[in-house]
Design goal:
Layout lengths: L4 H10 L7 E4 L2 H11 L4 E5 L12 E4 L2 H11 L3 E2 L9 E2 L3 E5 L3 E12 L4 E7 L6 H7 L4 E6 L7 H10 L4 H20 L2 E12 L4 E3 L3 E4 L21 H9 L2 E4 L4 E5 L2 H13 L6 E4 L6 H12 L6 E8 L4 H14 L6 E7 L2 H10 L5 E2 L3 H14 L5
Parallel strand pairs: 14-16, 16-17, 17-18
Antiparallel strand pairs: 1-6, 2-3, 2-6, 4-5, 7-8, 7-10, 8-9, 10-11, 10-12, 13-15
Helix pairs in contact: 2-3, 5-6, 7-9, 9-10, 10-11
The structure holds adenosine-5'-diphosphate (ADP) and magnesium ion (MG).
Length: 392
């Protein structure tokens, strides 16, 4: 689960990680009054969307009066912000964070993540703060310093010294940084985060360290242990299909192709996407409707898939193991009575009672394209999508 910068900063404060003073605004008037309350010479207006790269995309503005804050807020509120992380449609700006401007002497990068290949939590720092860290990793990996953090010991003194040295901090600055690292590790561990990132952590003109940006992702499998985090959940900037999937508890990932896929089981879903590619097509999504494949789930699946205007044909690929194929076929027919689908639907059902299922589909008044093998299904759906003028 992703949360907004202002929410992450709230948690930072609870964990004694310093952040600039500020407050959120959903209207121009509120933005102005926050600016007046802050009363600083420099003010910063920041779009609160679930994506990074806002600075370069015009979503972070530095100004010098409450009037300017109001002007910028009028510009930003209600607009879609397109950054390199949002995709073409961008994310709608509904909330702004108005905060005091900080005089920056140096910008650093600090993050803690689960490094799956190493099987460890790692703390990562770099002197190249405020930049795209992927770019730093590619172009000058020697500028990134990594320390594995053992859950039983936390940050050890020698590791702290190494991190401070990597950031070229003075003794006093190093003490401050060390406390921030410890608090960040505590936050990460106690709240079951999968990522905590401060980019940039800055050294101010008065030699203070302060987190100018804040990003936290939580491990969704552990959210049940943190009912207090429920209030941070905001699905409103997800795409329509993602929202429906979230509500229905289905795994759905929108992609850029034109073949909608409805599959039971994540492994089969991946294989289905592979074979669509193999036959020259391009999947529009990953969608796992789970083992049950009831009429309701199938109907939900259709709704989710057709919410993407790029979809030109649908492939339903279901293995009837737990559930019998004839029941799935009935479910598909029933679902299409409740959802309007105006594009070709290719169906491949394998497993228990597959033949009865094929007969049901062929005899139904709805014009399904019934496929036998997975290869056959993939070829048919790719062809159907191409005939409807979609990009391959
Ligand atoms: P993003 O990572 O989405 O681009 P940031 O919060 O990192 O957004 O902001 C981008 C840049 O704007 C920062 O690297 C920093 O240079 C500047 N900035 C952000 N907040 C402040 C602030 N409160 N005072 C001064 N500069 C800021
Ligand atoms: Mg940032």
């Amino acid at each position: 689960m992703k949360i907004h910068e202002y929410q992450a900063k709230e948690l930072f404060q609870k964990y004694h990680i310093p952040v600039p003073r500020g407050d959120i605004a959903k209207t121009v008037e509120k933005a102005r009054s926050v600016a007046e309350w802050l009363g600083t010479d420099t003010l910063v207006v920041k779009a609160q969307v679930h994506a990074g790269g806002r600075g370069q995309a015009g979503g972070v503005k530095i100004v010098h009066s409450a009037d300017e804050v109001a002007d910028i807020s009028r510009d930003l509120l209600g607009k879609s912000l397109i950054t390199h992380q949002t995709g073409g449609g961008g994310k709608k700006i509904k909330t702004l964070l108005v905060e005091e401007g900080i005089q920056i002497r140096k910008e650093f990068y600090v993050s803690m993540i689960t490094d799956r290949s190493a099987g460890k939590n790692i703390l990562m720092v770099s002197t190249e703060g405020g930049m795209d860290i992927e770019k730093v990793a590619q172009e000058s990996p020697e500028k990134i310093h990594i320390e594995p953090i053992h859950p039983a010991t936390g940050l050890l003194p020698f590791q702290k010294r190494r991190l401070v040295a990597a950031l070229k901090l003075s003794r006093q600055e190093g003490d401050m940084a060390g406390r921030i690292f410890e608090n960040l590790i505590r936050l990460y561990t106690e709240l079951d985060a999968s990522l905590v990132e401060i980019n940039p952590l800055v050294l101010t003109d008065e030699s203070f360290l302060i987190a100018l940006d804040a990003k936290i992702n939580f491990d969704e499998n552990a959210l049940y242990r943190h009912p207090e985090l429920e209030i941070y959940k905001d699905t409103s900037d997800l795409e329509e299909g993602e929202q429906m999937a979230e509500e229905a508890g289905l795994s759905y990932i929108p992609l850029t192709g034109n073949v909608g896929c409805m599959v039971n089981g994540a492994g089969l879903a991946m294989a289905t996407m592979d074979i669509i590619k193999y036959y020259g097509g391009s999947p529009a999504n990953f969608l796992d409707i789970g083992g049950g494949a009831s009429a309701e789930t199938v109907a939900k699946g259709f709704q989710i898939i057709v919410s993407d205007p790029g979809v030109k044909a649908i492939l339903i690929n279901i293995f009837g193991g737990i559930v019998r194929c004839d029941r799935v076929a009935r479910g598909i027919i029933e679902a299409l009575n409740t959802v309007d689908v105006h594009i070709p639907v290719v169906v491949r059902l394998k497993g228990t009672n597959a033949e009865e299922a094929a007969t049901l589909l062929r005899e139904s008044p709805l014009s399904f394209i019934v496929a036998d093998t997975l290869a056959d299904a993939a070829q048919k759906v790719v062809q159907a999508a191409q005939e409807r003028g979609g990009k391959a």
